[in-house]
Amino acid sequence: MTASPEPTPRVLVTPAAEATIDVLREEHGPLMFHQSGGCCDGSSPMCFPKGEFRVSTNDVWLGRIHGCDFFMSAAQFAYWQHTQLTIDVTKGRGASFSLEIPLGVRFLIRSRLFTEAEEQHLAPVYDGEEYPQEA
Predict the structure, then answer these.
(1) How far apart are CA 130 and CA 34, in angstroms?
(2) Cα-flanking dihedrals φ and ψ of residue 39, to 5°?
(3) How far is CA 47 from CA 9, 110, 120, 123, in A?
(4) How far apart are CA 61 and CA 64, in angstroms?
(5) From 29, 63, 92, 95, which residue has the greatest number of CB atoms within 10 Å?
(6) Tens digits of pLDDT across the chain (135 residues)
(7) 65 three-state secondary structure
(8) How far is CA 123 from CA 7, 64, 114, in A?
(9) Coil, strand or helix: which one is 64?
């Protein structure tokens, strides 16, 4: 019997972003991310204390990065559903309410299209009210 392949993750995180998440988690506790479909910094991934940003059926849960739930607006997901996202961090201040801003860095997204093989095994997505909660 052949084992089924692991699902292709929809969102990844770089080691540099993980290190920033660790700093933020130390200060703020559990965290979450939301990627909106807004303009300017509103289209950047934003980090909040877990539960501070209210998600709903208008949001899609894409998975977890470094222990943090990652959501995207459903409208934005309609455009990005064939794209794997990698959350990274860069020097510079964004103009948002995201927690990393006082550190002099900002989170950003790098993306690439899934291959045909990857698309056959994509990790499931859930709406913002029905995503799998961590135990």
Answers:
(1) 16
(2) -95, 170
(3) 19, 16, 30, 22
(4) 8
(5) 63
(6) 556 678 999 999 999 999 999 999 999 999 999 997 765 555 789 999 999 999 999 999 999 999 999 999 999 999 999 999 999 999 987 767 899 999 999 999 999 999 999 999 999 999 988 888 875
(7) strand
(8) 5, 11, 12
(9) strand
Q: What is the pLDDT of residue 40?
A: 53
Classify domain 11-125 at the CATH topology level. Answer: Hypothetical Protein Aq_1857; Chain: A; (2.60.300)
Determine the Cα–Cα distance for residues 99 and 71; give it in Å rounded to an integer.
Answer: 16
pTM higher than 0.85, yes or no? Answer: yes
Structure tokens that stand for 63 in this block: 């998975």
Question: Alpha-carbon torsion 135, 133, 51, 86, what sign?
Answer: positive
| Token pair for 7 | 């699902």
Tokens of 129: 């009210």
Q: Rounded distance, CA 26 to CA 20, Å?
A: 10
Pairwise CA distance, residues 60 & 14, whole Å: 21
